[in-house]
Design brief:
- It is a single chain.
- This protein is of the alpha/beta class and about 290 residues long.
- It has 15 helices and nine strands.
- The strands form three sheets. A five-stranded parallel sheet has the order 2-5-8-1-9, with helices on both faces. It has a two-stranded antiparallel sheet with strand order 3-4.
- Helix 1 packs across helix 2.
- It starts with a helix and ends with a helix.
């Protein structure tokens, strides 16, 4: 794909996606080399947003496949439209046609319900295929994906091999809940997406929640960075940081204090044991955030 690194940078700026040169380079190489990008890192660090931002930058359709345990080919690739097939069979029987005469017709492309993978392959235009949280899918499904990621084609027994008309831009994300296969890793460019540092997160808060005072935004970012250093069940995501900033702004808070933090901490911490750990550290975290 004919694109420059500066075009990627400006596209990210226009999409209001604050990032780093390493991420910009990874996206540039993904577009230039037309290879899938595997973005790994903690949950909530902004990996899924990469696919959305790419689609916005390129003005392309975003096709998202959310992975989960038990996901199989049928749910990811296609299913037959059984109701439509049945209606066709009944209509053909009414005309005196036998099964041998209609079987080929009802197992044709007209009776397919396309799921994200097949839609990405058959689309006449370039699309962005986001395969989200691949680590949650079973290894068997991961093995099935290899044909798509290496040759950009899929095999449908009744129709044969379907090859992409326009090679899709593929972004896979992983929260690293399990190790992915070497075969999958070989087919992808790799990018580790970590939580931003306090200064970068303060910049994100200022961009996404412009009503928040810059001083308060910096305090929020430093406080959240301190939370992430605690031994929590789930570290706060960037989205939760932004929710907290919006909540504090709605309450008219201009500076973090113990009362406002304890009143709103459930916006960033969703587990009771995490809340208890954090509440014991509120004073020291606020002091660190003001320094």
């Amino acid at each position: 794909m004919d694109v420059t690194l500066e075009q990627v940078r400006s596209g990210l700026r226009e999409a209001r996606y604050i990032t780093t040169p390493r991420v910009e380079t990874a996206l540039f190489l993904t577009l230039t080399l037309e290879k899938p990008l595997l973005a790994e890192g903690p949950a909530g660090a902004g990996k899924t947003e990469l696919g959305k931002v790419l689609a916005g930058m390129l003005r392309a359709e975003l096709l998202r496949l959310q992975c989960y345990e038990g996901l199989d080919e049928a749910r990811a690739l296609f299913e037959w439209n059984y109701q439509k097939q049945l209606l066709r069979i009944q209509a053909d029987r009414g005309e005196g046609r036998h099964w041998d005469d209609v079987a080929h017709d009802v197992f044709s492309a007209d009776f397919l319900l396309e799921r994200p993978l097949l839609r990405a392959i058959t689309s006449p235009r370039k699309v962005v295929l986001l395969i989200d949280e691949i680590d949650k899918a079973d290894p068997e499904f991961e093995a099935f994906l290899l044909e798509v990621l290496s040759d950009f084609q899929v095999s449908v027994p009744e129709l044969g091999t379907l090859t992409a008309r326009q090679r899709p831009i593929v972004v896979l994300t992983s929260n690293r809940t399990r190790d992915l296969s070497e075969a999958l890793l070989r087919r992808c460019l790799h990018l580790f997406v970590d939580f931003p540092g306090p200064e970068k997160e303060a910049e994100i808060i200022g961009l996404k929640v412009p009503d928040v005072d810059a001083r308060l935004g910096a305090q929020i970012a430093r406080f959240v960075a301190g939370l992430r250093r605690l031994d929590l069940r789930k570290a706060p995501s960037i989205a939760e940081t932004l929710d907290w900033a919006r909540g504090l702004c709605a309450l008219g808070v201009r500076e973090l204090d113990a009362a406002s933090v304890r009143q709103t901490l459930s916006l960033v911490l969703k587990h009771e044991d995490d809340l208890r750990k954090a509440e014991a550290k509120v004073g020291s975290l606020i002091a660190a955030g003001r320094s």
